[in-house]
Model the fold of this input.
Amino acid sequence: MRQTPSKAVPAIELHGLERRYGDRPALAGVTLTVQAGETLVVLGPNGAGKSTLLRVLATLLRPHGGTASVLGHALPKEAWAARKRIGYVGHDSMLYRDLSGRENLLLHARLHRVDEPEARVAEVLEAVGMSKRAGDTVHTYSRGMVQRTAVARAVLHDPEVLLLDEPRANLDPGASELVAPLLAGRTRVITSHDPSDADTADVVLGLKAGRPHPLEGLYA
Done:
């Protein structure tokens, strides 16, 4: 059962977050707070640091400066505790290409100790329209099928926080409608190139060259 974080504890809290690749800053001076149930949309051009921010929150990268916490768990010290409460969809699907979609999801379910894993896997595969192809290996899937299966994987363990790197990438309008209900009703961090996505957000962060930037002139 999904835990409900206290309103007194922000779902995500960053203060002066920094991350570098060698001498190049990928994130610098990022400070924000996202409360439980809110949606943060991160906008910016290519190379702005959007994906890096999600990977830090997903505990895949360590911050080099500042502080970061997810659901009250300090990163990276308490990454192990945050990880089981996070669902992540990145540019890399994190699916094993030589396993079937069903096998990938069953493995993920067992790692997260999901109750009745076979029933839960069948439920999410049906929700994303992948039941008929669930027994096929991932390397035979189209990009859209891979994305739908990655979304199913991300929500399988009913996480409280979803980290979504351009979640509509490779999805046609019908597939987008299928996955939308699975992504709703949770704290979300969504990266996007589309400024209109800011209209659906509770919190908006503009990034340019790794630094917070006003939306005006963000893509200039």
